[in-house]
Write a structure and sequence with these properties.
337 residues; alpha+beta; 28% helix
Length: 337
């Protein structure tokens, strides 16, 4: 079924030759604007936030971006009737005579139909659901088989926010699959529990929600591969979170305390005197949950010293005075001058 083409570059407001840093900056700006935690219209913001995350998911991944760029330039934003070139469909299976047809469609995973067509759906073999054209429903081997045949397992990706990782959630999903006996498409609606502390790359197994079985055979299973939704302020690595802490030069030199953003509210951190740019400050126990056993990972704030771009006359005089009285010479320290 043709789907609407998604112009990911237009979604982020960047050009097709934008660099990685430009794409990252555009994502962060839009994500902060449309993050459900800060937007007034939370439902509209949630949908926009998903679109932004999907675009960033593709354009920040070199392999996905390369694949997308192979045909993306030939389509206009909002164009309908898009179908990937032959062999691109992850959601296709073959009958025994080589005929190819689309078999599955997901809803509620956090990705659009367009993304699912190109990147989202995969199969793990199974009777009659071999995406590589193995034993299919139209094959002679199948018709000679006797007894019940189990349906194939199906794999998909599900986009999970860090808030869901923190608190857990229950997601409503829909799954359209083709009944191999009747040829009709049926829709399954069900709920999936996102456990607290679920990890990026972890698999959630949904029993019996895969391919339809034959002659009374059990349905296959659905395996959902968790992908963390990108966050404008945090990066996750296992249970640890990483963020930027912007400080003034005098704060790094003299030391101070500052509030660092955290998923469950800000936390105060001490910046020791003489802190260097790029130094990481560890805030214990403010990362992601470790799972059902309790406990949490850590939050690491990377110091980013910011220099003032505009100076008042008084500020300039102060900096000039500092230059006159300071004996510090960074070049002597590094080059043994």
């Amino acid at each position: 079924m043709p789907v609407e083409f998604k112009d990911y570059y237009a979604t982020l407001g960047v050009t097709r030759n934008a660099g990685d840093e430009d794409i990252k900056k555009a994502f962060r700006k839009l994500a902060r604007q449309y993050h459900p935690d800060v937007a007034r219209d939370k439902k509209a913001a949630e949908e926009k936030f998903k679109e932004i995350n999907e675009a960033y998911e593709v354009l920040s991944d070199p392999e996905k971006r390369k694949k997308y760029d192979q045909f993306g330039a030939n389509w206009k934003q909002g164009a309908t009737g898009f179908e990937p070139p032959p062999g691109w469909q992850n959601g296709a299976t073959r009958t025994g005579n080589g005929e190819q047809y689309r078999e599955f469609h997901f809803g509620g995973t956090g990705f659009s139909d367009f993304f699912e067509q190109l990147f989202g759906r995969r199969f793990s073999g199974g009777s009659g659901f071999d995406a590589d054209g193995g034993t299919g429903f139209g094959s002679e081997a199948f018709h000679q088989a006797r007894g019940a045949v189990r349906g194939g397992d199906v794999e998909a990706e599900i986009l999970v926010t860090l808030d869901e990782v923190m608190h857990g959630s229950v997601r409503s999903l829909s799954f359209q699959r083709r009944n191999p006996k009747t040829g009709q498409t049926e829709t399954l609606n069900f709920k999936v529990r996102i456990p607290i502390g679920v990890r990026d790359g972890q698999t959630i197994r949904v029993s019996g929600k895969g391919g339809e079985g034959i002659d009374g055979g059990a349905s296959g299973d659905l395996f959902l591969h968790v992908r963390y939704a990108a966050h404008p302020d945090f990066r996750a690595r296992d249970a640890d979170l990483y963020c930027e802490l912007y400080v003034a030069p005098w704060e790094a030199v003299l030391g101070t305390t500052a509030d660092v953003p955290a998923l469950d509210g800000s936390v105060s951190v001490r910046i020791p005197a003489g802190t260097n740019n790029g130094q990481r400050l560890r805030v214990s126990g403010h990362g992601l949950p470790l799972g059902r056993n309790g406990g949490r990972g850590d939050l690491y704030a990377t110091v980013n010293v910011q220099l003032p771009k505009q100076l008042s006359a008084e500020e300039r005089q102060a900096w000039e005075k500092l230059r006159q009285v300071s004996r510090f010479n960074p070049r002597r320290k590094h080059y043994n001058e």
